[in-house]
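F.,

This is the one I mentioned.
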């Protein structure tokens, strides 16, 4: 079996995790989450963060014990059985492909008129797939530069919101169900830390590096989201935030910093592209792992002799996502993505519960919280997202049955 080269340290792995989380979600998820949770938006953020922390500890613990490409696909196979591994891997591939399409659409939606958004987004997907196929160190370098620019702009948004006038107190409906639905939407913005685990075969000293990188990336993203969520509520109020088509642009405009709006638009596009870059890398590695076990076509089980990347898987994933960009809308992609990713993490938590004591780094109770949290958030997703996700999941299972037969 061909293997990938270990070239990433803690810093680069953490940057890839942060770049995956500080992407389209921080610019696009606030409005639908505010529409669901109203004034309790930050409570939804807390619920999403709790589930994310539980998932992150399970993921980090498993990745340290099994530092190979594939993430929960490998963990599920090893601890629960081949079918559970397949469901996790397939859920990740379909969910994150939809997420990648959403990232590309956000990038172009902030900069281009509607007629150009989808074709340009598809072209960007193919370009970034080629960049990923050229080497993981190039992925890390590009992500590092993008994250630096985006963090600076986001901090400027927070500063602008501090002096903003108090928004009108328009009543907004909310409920416990709405808080959970808001958490499910905001979870979309947290899910990037899994990218570190899917790159486990390319990380130096994985038993030490992966847990550190996962938890550091999550802590940085959570701190930033609290600042941004609080700033958006302070500047726009829950009703204004729920109606905003470009929430952070609306924040700077409402705060009297309108000249900053074009900068925010550019940062939104950069953040989405940075997350897309890391996403495509993670999907490609999971596809490679599934091809090794023949859960995907064997032709994808290939590593480039020079660049040491799963180039065939990367290019196929890029082509699939480019087609999806031309066919789906942004909100549908986010809901579909959440379904697949929550299934992926549910399997990861179940696998962590089956780990022997010698491999455990965190209390088993966290894995229980993660498993129950994933189930609760899936149940509150829009029914269309659940139906579409279940249908594609069933199709994948049927194709696996036919291949095995």
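My design for it:
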């Amino acid at each position: 079996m061909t293997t990938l080269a270990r070239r990433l340290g803690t810093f680069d792995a953490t940057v890839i995790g942060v770049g995956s989380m500080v992407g389209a979600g921080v610019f696009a998820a606030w409005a639908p989450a505010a529409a669901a949770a109203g004034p309790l938006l930050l409570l939804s953020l807390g619920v999403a963060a709790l589930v994310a922390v539980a998932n992150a500890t399970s993921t980090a613990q498993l990745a340290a014990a099994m530092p190979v490409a594939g993430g929960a696909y490998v963990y599920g196979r090893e601890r629960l059985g081949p079918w559970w591994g397949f469901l996790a891997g397939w859920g990740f591939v379909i969910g994150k492909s939809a997420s990648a399409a959403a990232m590309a659409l956000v990038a172009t939606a902030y900069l281009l008129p509607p007629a150009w958004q989808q074709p340009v987004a598809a072209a960007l997907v193919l370009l970034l797939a080629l960049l990923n196929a050229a080497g993981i160190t190039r992925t890390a370098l590009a992500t590092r530069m993008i994250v630096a620019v985006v963090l600076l702009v986001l901090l400027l948004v927070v500063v602008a919101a501090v002096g903003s006038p108090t928004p009108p107190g328009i009543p907004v409906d909310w409920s416990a169900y709405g808080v959970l639905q808001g958490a499910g939407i905001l979870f979309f913005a947290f899910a990037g830390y899994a990218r570190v685990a899917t790159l486990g075969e390319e990380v130096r000293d994985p038993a030490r590096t992966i847990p550190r990188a996962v938890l550091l990336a999550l802590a940085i993203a959570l701190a930033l989201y609290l600042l941004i969520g609080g700033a958006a509520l302070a500047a726009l109020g829950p009703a204004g935030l729920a109606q905003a088509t470009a929430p952070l642009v609306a924040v700077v405009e409402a705060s009297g910093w309108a000249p900053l709006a074009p900068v925010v638009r550019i940062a939104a596009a950069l953040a989405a592209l940075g997350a897309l870059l890391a996403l495509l890398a993670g999907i490609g590695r999971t596809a490679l792992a599934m091809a090794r076990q023949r859960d995907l076509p064997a032709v994808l089980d290939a590593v480039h002799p020079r660049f040491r990347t799963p180039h065939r898987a990367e290019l196929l994933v890029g082509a699939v996502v480019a087609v999806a960009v031309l066919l789906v809308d942004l909100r549908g992609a986010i809901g579909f993505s959440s379904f697949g990713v929550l299934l992926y993490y549910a399997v990861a938590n179940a696998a962590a519960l089956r780990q022997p004591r010698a491999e455990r780094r965190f209390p088993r109770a966290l894995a229980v919280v993660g498993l129950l949290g994933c189930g609760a958030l899936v149940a509150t997703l829009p029914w269309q997202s659940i139906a579409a996700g279940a249908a594609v999941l069933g199709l994948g299972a049927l194709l696996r049955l036919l291949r095995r037969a």
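The mean pLDDT is 82.

Talk soon.
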